[in-house]
Design a protein that fits this description.
CATH class: Alpha Beta
CATH architecture: 4-Layer Sandwich
Number of helices: 7
Number of domains: 1
CATH superfamily: Ribonuclease Z/Hydroxyacylglutathione hydrolase-like
Strand content: 25-35%
Length: 282
């Protein structure tokens, strides 16, 4: 089944650049988008991640939220003719502050899907305060409400199907319970990869730090090992036609390399082509 993914623009955040890419421009601030995703073409709409609760909550991380009326999730969905009550599943890549802040906008018969390991981490104190109290309290309310929450065990089961053409798998990076969301599109598999990748240009495309061939640069915010994060990024580049992180526009991938950037729909028109240098003998 060929599905289509629409980006939902939940506003921007301002944060230190080295949070995005380890060791990059320490002390300098960068403004990045916060996206969610609406999957259409199946029996029911599916939403992936819901953004941050409000501008004030971002201050708990020393960041600035830039969310306006148009960025509210109800308004973003309305642009596609979808109401919160129409959504069958919310699927979370993970539960950090800018990913699970608007679940309480949706009724309890919209089922939230989260990896069980991620819910465990959210209440363990690991990476606190990136798991803010109101968001996680709402998740616990869903835990005790019939069918309001679906817990996966991706590290044990492998991939799990959500609806035909959409499934989740363990990301094995960023947080201990992060998940990737895979979508079958008319132009191949697209992977919504959360925060495993923050910035295509400075982590993958740019050559200014790279020494080893095909070696990505890691983010400045991860709970696991650097080696594990590098491997998770390489797996994404080697397995999917499109990659859709939360904080940078989607990319088209060929032969493990970023070849183009896209706009607000995947598959969709290319907004920027990237020339990949060919190897030549000396």
């Amino acid at each position: 089944m060929a599905l289509e993914i629409h980006l939902l623009d939940f506003g921007d955040i301002e944060l230190e650049t080295s949070f995005l890419v380890l060791g990059l421009e320490c002390g300098r601030t960068r403004r990045v988008p916060v996206y969610g995703f609406l999957i259409l073409g199946g029996k029911y709409p599916v939403v992936v991640d819901t953004g941050y609760r409000d501008n004030a909550i971002m201050e708990s991380l020393g960041m600035r939220g830039l969310q306006f009326h148009d960025n509210l999730i109800e308004n973003q969905l309305a642009k596609h003719g979808v109401r919160p009550g129409d959504v069958r599943y919310i699927v979370h890549t993970h539960l950090h502050i800018d990913h699970a802040g608007k679940d309480d906008v949706f009724p309890m018969n919209t089922t939230v899907v989260v990896n069980r390991r991620e819910l465990e981490c959210s209440v363990s104190g690991i990476m606190h305060p990136q798991y803010p109290k109101p968001d996680i309290q709402h998740m616990i309310e869903r835990l005790h409400t019939k069918d309001a929450l679906r817990l996966t065990d991706l590290e044990i089961t492998g991939a799990e199907e959500i609806i035909p053409g959409v499934w989740v798998e363990a990301a094995n990076a960023h947080t201990e319970g992060s998940a990737n969301v895979i979508v079958e599109t008319a132009d191949g598999l697209a992977c919504i990869c959360g925060d495993v990748i923050y910035d295509f240009n400075d982590q993958i495309v740019a050559d200014r730090w790279r020494v080893n061939d095909m070696e990505p640069r890691v983010t400045g915010n991860h709970a696991g090992s650097i080696r594990g994060e590098k491997a998770a990024i390489k797996k994404l580049l080697n397995n999917y036609r499109y990659l859709l992180p939360i904080h940078t526009p989607p990319a088209k991938i060929e032969n493990g390399k970023v070849v183009a950037r896209l706009g607000m729909t995947v598959p969709g028109p290319i907004t920027q082509s990237i020339t990949v240098p060919e190897w030549r003998p000396v």
